[in-house]
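Q: I'm writing a short explainer about PhoB family transcriptional regulator for a general audience and would like to include a description of its predicted shape. Could you first generate the structure from this sequence?
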Amino acid sequence: MPTPDGKGYLLLVEDEHNLARYLQLELENEGFSADIEYDGLSGLEKALTIEYDLILLDVMLPELSGIELCRRIRETKDVPIIMITARGEVPDIVTGLDSGANDYLAKPFAIEELFARIRALLRQRETKATQEIVVGRLRIQPNARRVFLDEEEIMLTPREFDLLYYLVQNKEQAVSREQILTAVWGFDFMGNTNIVDVYIRYLRNKIETDPSVKLIHTVRGIGYTLRD
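A: Of course. Here's the predicted structure. Afterward I'll give you a sentence or two in plain language.
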């Protein structure tokens, strides 16, 4: 689904229909585009299938709580998330942020404050999108999910990119196959750890075109590490 024109494409997951409609109208008046879902499961489906610029998420939702919804989104996406809730106590704020939310706004709130927080997170996202990670001859653009070897773009599958990015994030550290499985394939993956070796081989074939330059190193008895 193409991203609508405007300042940003947002998902609002809020079970209070009147509040949800009010926020949608205010967001649209401000120049944003916004979809609404009224329960956690529908919100999860939308969040995982559509590339939103930001998600506004209530904590108290039917079907799936906002906290669990945030955690599941975070397993595969780094989209900015603002949690909106009637709860403003410190433990609730900590739980929301620990689940992966970028910001937290307690009801009632001024709509101008919400706009300010949205703009701040979108600016951060835009800044991150322009940043590159350089490892040897590789240039990695995390938000764009693009990888270049010198000036030539390398076409990686989503899983290959996730594997490379995890190794880059843990550069110079030895990570086990089990750690890689959890981070890249997810906690619920029930397959054999040999799948890691298979994808490491795929990745090496694409990024180590010069036999004299190795980036991914095998750590005997443990797993793998990435070094310049």
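A: For your explainer, you could say: Confidence is low (pLDDT under 50) at residues 1-5.
Q: Perfect, that's easy to follow.
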